[in-house]
Design a protein that fits this description.
alpha+beta, about 325 residues, OB fold (Dihydrolipoamide Acetyltransferase, E2P), Helix Hairpins, Elongation Factor Tu (Ef-tu), domain 3, 14 strands, 4-stranded antiparallel β-sheet
C-alpha cells in the first residue's frame, strides 16, 4: 500500500514538472520581441549629385534585313568591327537559287550550242550553194550552146544540108545539157531554200539565246543576294543571326550598324528612388574613360520602362557602342 502511494506521488511530481516546463516555454515564446523592420534608405536631398554607370549606345543605327530565305552560312565580321559600304557581312545559302543558277547556265549552254550548230549548217549551205550556183551557171551556158546548135541542125536537116546522125548526136547533147541544167538549177533552189530556213532557225535560236542569257543574269542577280553587304559605312553593334541560323526574307534582322558615332547616348538602369526623380530634359555630365576632363554636357532624352537614356555629342571616335560610361545627375 505504501509502495503504491509513493509511486503515484512520484508520477505527480513528474507531471507537474512537465507542466511547468511547458508553461515556461510558452511564456518565453509569448514574450519574445518581434524583429524590427529594416530601415529604408534615406531620401536623397534636393540638389544631391548621383553618379550612375551605364552603357554607350549609338543613336543612329541602320538595320540589315535578310534579303532572301535560307541559312546563314558564314559571318566574317564581329561586333565592334568597322565596315564600309558594300562590304560583305555574311552569306546566306539558298539551295533553290543555286539550283536555278545551275539550270539557267545549262540552258544557256544548250542555246549557245544550237546557235553554233545552226551557224555551221548555214555556212556549209552557203558554200554548197556557191558551188551549185557555179555548176548551174555552167550547165545553163552549155545548154544554151547545145540548144543553138540543135536548132541549127534541125534547120540543116530539114533542108538536107546535114547528115541524120549528126543531127541526132546534136539532139542528144542538147537533151543531156537540158537535163543537167534543170537538175542543177533545181538543186541550187533547194539549197537556197535551206539557207533561208537555216537563217530563220538561227534568228529564232538567237532570240532563245538572248532569253536564256536574261534568265541566267536574273538567276545570278538573285544568287548575288546570298552575299549580305553593308548598306553604309559604320560600326557593327549587333549580330542578330549567327552561322547556321535559318533566316526569313524581309523578316529577320541580321545586323545592326551604327552610322554616326558622334551622336551617342548612355543607357542607365537606376534604382527606383533615383529613377522616379529623373525627368526628361534634365542636364547631366557624361564621363568617358578615354576622355579625361570635367565631363561632356548631356541631357536626359527619355525615361522608359525603368531605363534612362542620356544623349550627348561625342568628340572622339574612341567612344564605341557597348563601352561603359558614367553619368552625373543633380536630383531635383
Amino acid at each position: 500500500m505504501k509502495k503504491a502511494w509513493m509511486t503515484a506521488a512520484a508520477a505527480a511530481v513528474v507531471l507537474a514538472g512537465a507542466g511547468w516546463g511547458g508553461w515556461t516555454y510558452w511564456q518565453g515564446r509569448k514574450a519574445a520581441p518581434k524583429a524590427a523592420p529594416a530601415a529604408e534608405a534615406p531620401e536623397l536631398p534636393a540638389g544631391a549629385l548621383v553618379s550612375l554607370q551605364g552603357v554607350l549606345r549609338a543613336q543612329n543605327v541602320v538595320t540589315v534585313i535578310a534579303p532572301l530565305d535560307g541559312v546563314m552560312e558564314e559571318v566574317p565580321v564581329t561586333v565592334g568591327e568597322e565596315v564600309f559600304e558594300s562590304q560583305i557581312l555574311g552569306r546566306i545559302a539558298n539551295d533553290l537559287l543555286e539550283q536555278n543558277e545551275r539550270n539557267a547556265t545549262l540552258e544557256l549552254e544548250r542555246a549557245q550550242a544550237r546557235v553554233g550548230a545552226l551557224e555551221s549548217t548555214l555556212l556549209a549551205a552557203r558554200l554548197e550553194e556557191s558551188r551549185a550556183s557555179a555548176d548551174a551557171a555552167r550547165a545553163r551556158s552549155e545548154y544554151a550552146r547545145a540548144e543553138r546548135e540543135y536548132q541549127r541542125q534541125r534547120i540543116l536537116l530539114r533542108e538536107g544540108a546535114t547528115a541524120k546522125n549528126t543531127h541526132d548526136a546534136t539532139q542528144k547533147v542538147f537533151e543531156s545539157t537540158q537535163v543537167e541544167s534543170e537538175t542543177l538549177t533545181a538543186l541550187t533552189r533547194a539549197i537556197q531554200e535551206r539557207i533561208q530556213q537555216a537563217s530563220r532557225d538561227i534568228e529564232a535560236a538567237r532570240k532563245t539565246l538572248a532569253e536564256e542569257e536574261e534568265k541566267l543574269e536574273l538567276a545570278r542577280l538573285e544568287l548575288a543576294a546570298e552575299q549580305v553587304v553593308s548598306p553604309v559605312d559604320g560600326v557593327v553593334v549587333a549580330i542578330r543571326k549567327s552561322a547556321g541560323a535559318e533566316v526569313k526574307k524581309e523578316v529577320d534582322i541580321l545586323f545592326d550598324i551604327a552610322v554616326d558615332l558622334t551622336a551617342m547616348e548612355v543607357v542607365l538602369e537606376p534604382e527606383p528612388p533615383v529613377l522616379k526623380r529623373v525627368k526628361v530634359g534634365m542636364e547631366a555630365l557624361v564621363d568617358l574613360a578615354d576622355l579625361p576632363g570635367d565631363g561632356l554636357p548631356a541631357a536626359v532624352r527619355a525615361v522608359e520602362e525603368g531605363k534612362v537614356y542620356v544623349e550627348f555629342a561625342s568628340p572622339t571616335p574612341l567612344a564605341r557602342p557597348g563601352d561603359p560610361a558614367f553619368v552625373r545627375l543633380k536630383l531635383p
